From TrEMBL:
PANTHER family, alphabetized: AAA+ ATPASE DOMAIN-CONTAINING PROTEIN (PTHR46411:SF3), FAMILY ATPASE, PUTATIVE-RELATED (PTHR46411)
Segments forming domain AAA+ ATPase: 565-692
Biased composition (Polar residues): 729-744
Residues in coiled coil: none
Compositionally biased region (Acidic residues): 61-71
Record-linked CDD domains: RecA-like_protease (cd19481)
Compositionally skewed regions (Basic and acidic residues) per UniProt: 96-105, 757-776
Descriptive protein name: AAA+ ATPase domain-containing protein
Renumbered residue ranges of the record's region Disordered: 44-105, 725-776
Length: 845
């Protein structure tokens, strides 16, 4: 019996090709030879199968129980069919197989030395899939296998266009799925058209576009312009100009036919200054500049990518990933922020969108100039700076909710300190020299770092990837590193720079984000140190000591590195003699931050006190700040055998202060309660005595001079108008009810009478304001009588403040009579304090 496959196998492989196949390409020749080999293998398999059938038939007719088996080695397993008698063949359950059933093949393992030793490879093919897409591997080629759609023949065409079936569209049954540009002439044209477009490399061998064809649609005007220029150059000497034009027109015709509706609609909408939600993708081109308003701040971003998606509540939105310039404490770089445009019905003016292309802004030139100036301010605040702030600061709290604070006072702008002492909200950027290619519209991609506005607009659906907010190699870069020298920002980088700076509010004791336009220079007081009532040599010693220590603190060290570099000054004495003022005036004179630490800043739990105290000391050391621990006896009181919790706090202070590298002022009026271990840690101790007559006179003069300066400043400001409590009674028709029933011919006189009291009231208010801002009238004789009274500086200030309020109420200048009246009213408190002191003195003496 002949094998039907014998007719397909020629005696020689050269006869497998037809006479007219001499010019076929090499790929087709290789394909046909592979097909021939598969046919030969199938023919051999069919022959083996026939021989096995014949062997079984011979075994049935023979009385010989034994026969020869034939093995077919497949992937290291030998399939052996034994020629046995029917009586010896079972069905696997101890019985004989039924008539007509094929006999089962027994699997026999190969010799381990033969495994993997055959030269060649075994082909396996996926079988037919079931409903769940599952399949099994098989050794035969699938019957429905066809020829590849793209082969050597398809490579000769300028463009390969792939089509897919279209449903739910009555106008067409096929739509373009993707195209592959193969023409080198087209690639040369597109190289100029798509120059600078992110995510597109025109020089690839297979330049492929798919989806909405965003690059070609966004650059449609440039493509049309280039083709128009080609038509004008067809008469030139370029031999390929005509062919290049044909290729270009072919691409234009393809795009115009497939995307005619989208192109025409987008062009028409833009010309009218409106846009629909469905065509937003045609408005935003990656790499372009967009304008947006974030937290009431005008911002310009460089668009990184865009896509349609959903917000955290599942509402449809159009996402825009925007890029801006930021500072991470050591270098300038770029960061990303997600903003979205919620879905809307119909058309909407482009200028009303929260985010819009910069070209549609009404006052583009003025906006750019303003933002460049603002970016320049941010650039000047890179590093650590001591400034004043008057505005709103915020930070991210629990559940990504912004906590806002009203800040009016001194702040320290320090992004490096923000990252170090506030690591959960650290800022990390991509260096400016690192190429960060934006993603094409609708394709996503790119690494999205923790942005300046936290998670307000962020989404997590695979569109971005986060580095976890960790620094490179796990440590913060050194500010003084040569590799991290700050570069000078260009105007464009300043334009897209963040309006936020990070810093520490000294009064609120919080790390906050500040708006750069609310940051101001500090107006330091030049009279603070001069008004300090201390002996001249003592003042010179304090100022010189602290200034010198601040400049040369790193030159002297202990045997243990980092130990004993700081300076601790103890200021002790009765209340109101200028202990706290000393530290404040020294900081004002040196123009450095003053950190005022109290018991409330640290708490009483020893587990948390040490960490908070160490953080405060590190911040003060970094900023060259003066640390003031007011009423230090709370933490430095002598240890006892019964108060274990207090002993823990004292031991913490003893250990931590040993490694402090800055300047610390300790103030107390209970120095006798200090623990003995602190005596060796205090470098200078100054004892403040009660104010004598001369000192009190100086204090009175200082406060009176300050009073006059405040009065002059208040006189230049107009008085604040108070809201009247009187109500005008309206009539039933809504008009004001007339206050008199004068005849019509007396209307002019009535109007004059009504305006006259207003003018009179205004003049009286101005006169009263002038009287309330008069300088003081206290004479030298009055001053001598006042300084004879035993009072401290704080009491003098309080009496003068109260007396000034009394004088303003009466519309008079501050005089001795006002001071005397206040002292008579508050004398009982002073007498009570004196009585207590006399009682204590009599008891202990």
């Amino acid at each position: 019996m002949s094998n039907p496959l014998d007719a397909l196998v020629p005696p020689d492989e050269d006869h497998f090709f037809f006479t007219d196949d001499d010019e076929i390409d090499e790929e087709t020749r290789i394909y046909r030879l592979a097909l021939l080999r598969r046919i030969k293998r199938d023919r051999e398999a069919l022959n083996r199968q026939r021989r096995r059938k014949m062997a079984r038939r011979d075994a049935d007719s023979s009385s010989e129980p034994e026969g020869e088996g034939e093995a077919d080695q497949v992937n290291g397993t030998a399939k052996v069919v034994a020629n046995v008698t029917p009586a010896s063949t079972t069905d696997g359950k101890g019985g004989t197989p039924k008539e007509g059933e094929p006999e089962k093949e027994k699997l026999v393992k190969l010799d381990p030395e033969e495994i993997g030793m055959s030269v060649g490879y075994k082909n396996l093919y996926s079988g037919k899939e079931d409903k769940r897409g599952r399949f099994q591997w098989q050794t035969t080629i699938p019957e429905d296998l066809g020829k590849p759609a793209e082969d050597a023949e398809s490579e000769k065409w300028a463009i390969i266009v792939r089509h897919v079936k279209t449903y739910h569209d009555p106008k067409k049954v096929l739509s373009v799925h993707s195209i592959v540009v193969q023409s080198p002439l087209l690639k040369e044209l597109l190289k100029d058209v798509l120059a600078g477009y992110p995510g597109v490399t025109v020089g690839l061998k297979r330049l492929e576009f798919s989806g909405r064809f965003e690059p070609l649609i966004h650059r449609w005007p440039e493509l049309v312009k280039s083709i128009k220029e080609l038509r004008e150059r067809t008469d030139s000497d370029d031999a390929k100009a005509d062919e290049r034009l044909k290729h270009a027109e072919l691409l234009q015709e393809l795009l115009a036919t497939e995307f005619k509706d989208s192109i025409d609609s987008a062009t028409d909408l833009k010309s009218q200054g409106v846009m629909t939600y469905e065509h937003l993708w045609t408005l935003f081109q990656p790499g372009s500049l967009v304008f947006s308003k974030q937290q009431s701040q005008d911002r310009i971003f460089r668009l990184h990518g865009s896509r349609y998606g959903q917000d955290r509540n599942g509402n449809p939105v159009y996402w825009l990933t925007c890029q801006y310039v930021d500072y991470d404490g050591t270098r300038w770089g770029t960061n990303k922020l997600n903003v979205c445009i919620p879905a809307y019905e119909g058309t909407r003016p482009i200028t009303s969108l929260q985010t819009q292309p910069l070209d549609f802004h009404g006052d583009k030139t003025a906006l750019i100039e303003r933002l460049i100036e603002r970016g320049g301010k941010v650039e000047t605040l890179a590093g650590s700076h001591y400034r004043a702030y008057n505005g709103v600061g915020w930070r991210m709290g629990n559940m990504n909710v912004k906590e806002k604070y009203t800040v009016k006072g001194r702040v320290v702008i320090d992004t490096y300190g923000w990252n170090r002492f506030n690591p959960n909200m650290s800022v990390y950027v991509t260096a400016l020299h690192v190429k960060d290619v934006p993603a094409a519209a609708g394709t996503g991609g790119g690494a999205l770092a923790v942005g300046e506005y936290g998670g307000e607009d962020e989404y997590d659906d695979g569109f971005d990837s986060d580095d976890g907010g960790m620094p490179v190699d796990g440590f913060f870069a050194d500010e003084e590193d040569e590799d991290n020298k700050r570069v000078t920002l260009s105007d464009e980088q300043k334009m897209i720079c963040t309006p936020l700076v990070r810093g520490y509010a000294l009064k609120e004791k919080l790390w906050l984000n500040f708006f750069v336009n609310a940051v101001q220079d500090i107006d330091f007081s030049s009279r603070a140190f001069d008004s300090l009532v201390l002996p001249r040599n003592q003042k010179e010693l304090i100022l010189g000591f602290t200034a010198t220590q601040q400049s040369y603190r790193s030159q002297f060290d202990d045997v243990i590195e980092g130990k004993g570099r700081g300076i601790i000054l103890l200021l002790c004495g009765p209340p109101g003699v200028g202990k706290t003022l000393t530290a404040e005036s020294v900081a004002e004179e040196m123009k450095v931050p003053l950190y005022m630490m109290s018991a409330g800043d640290l708490g009483l739990d020893p587990r948390h006190v040490e960490a908070k105290l160490q953080g405060i000391l590190d911040m003060c050391t970094r900023w060259n700040a003066i640390l003031l621990l007011d009423e230090a006896d709370v933490f430095l009181e002598e240890r006892s055998l019964h108060e274990l919790e207090r002993n823990k706090l004292v031991s913490i202070f003893l250990r931590v202060l040993e490694y402090y590298e800055g300047i610390m002022f300790l103030t107390t009026n209970r120095v006798q309660t200090f623990d003995a271990a602190f005596q060796s840690r205090i470098h200078i101790s100054l004892n403040y005595q009660e104010l004598d007559t001369k000192s009190r006179k100086t204090v009175w003069k200082n406060f009176l001079a300050q009073h006059d300066l405040a009065q002059i400043s208040a006189r230049d400001r107009p008085p604040k108008a108070l809201f009247s409590a009187a109500k005008t009674k309206p009539t039933t028709n809504g008009h004001l009810e007339p206050t008199s029933s004068a005849p019509a011919d007396q209307t002019d006189g009535l109007a004059a009478a009504e305006t006259s009291p207003a003018d009179k009231e205004k003049s009286e208010a101005e006169a009263l304001h002038h009287k309330r801002t008069l300088p003081h009238e206290i004479t030298e004789k009055d001053l001598s009588r006042l300084c004879d009274m035993s009072m401290n500086g704080r009491q003098i200030k309080n009496i003068l403040k109260t007396a000034q309020l009394l004088a303003s109420k009466r519309g008079e200048g501050l005089s001795y009579e006002h001071v005397k009246t206040v002292m008579e009213v508050t004398q009982h408190l002073h007498n009570s304090n004196q009585e207590n002191e006399r009682t204590k003195s009599s008891l202990f003496n």
